[in-house]
Amino acid sequence: MRSKIAVLDWDTRKDPEAGYVFATRFAKPNGNAIFCGSAGKNEMKIFDNNGDNFRVLGSMHDFGASVLTMDTAKNGKQFCFGTSDGRVVSGFYEIDNDNMVTMDQLYANLGVSGEERKEQ
After folding, report:
1. How would DSSP label each residue in 41-108?
2. Three-state SS for 21?
């Protein structure tokens, strides 16, 4: 018998342009986070996987193309994803003691300048 385990609420504002999820991956090595990529707003979100609320730990959006594939490294510190326009984005992440990922860490490691960060 099948039953629903959990539902991750992609966009709590119920925005009809929020998009469709195309890629998901448990963070390695321990699965403490779930990485998801989508079309629509062309974004990547990191959800907490340490409890029942699956809150958003961090997100990046407005890539200009859908996020279709992603992976995390076995060391638990790197991720990458591919977009529908042929880009591969790679970066480093760290989940702190409060189970939060700071956007500055993600953007800095992806090489996005301060001006680009303000637009996003």
Report:
1. S--EEEEE-SSSS--EEEEE---SS-EEEEEE-TTSSEEEEEETTS-EEEEE----TTS---HHHHHH
2. strand
Q: In angstroms, what CA-CA distances link 6 with 25, 41, 106, 108, 116?
A: 15, 23, 27, 32, 35
Q: Answer yes or no: are the C-beta atoms of 76 and 27 closer than 8 Å.
A: yes
44-62 tens-digit pLDDT: 888 888 777 788 888 887 7
What is the β-pairing status of strands 44-48 and 21-26?
A: unpaired
Nearest-CA neighbor of 93 among 58, 117, 68?
58
Instruction: Note the pTM of the prediction, 2 decimals.
Output: 0.73
Q: Which residue has the tokens 């991720």?
A: 79
Strand partners, 69: 82
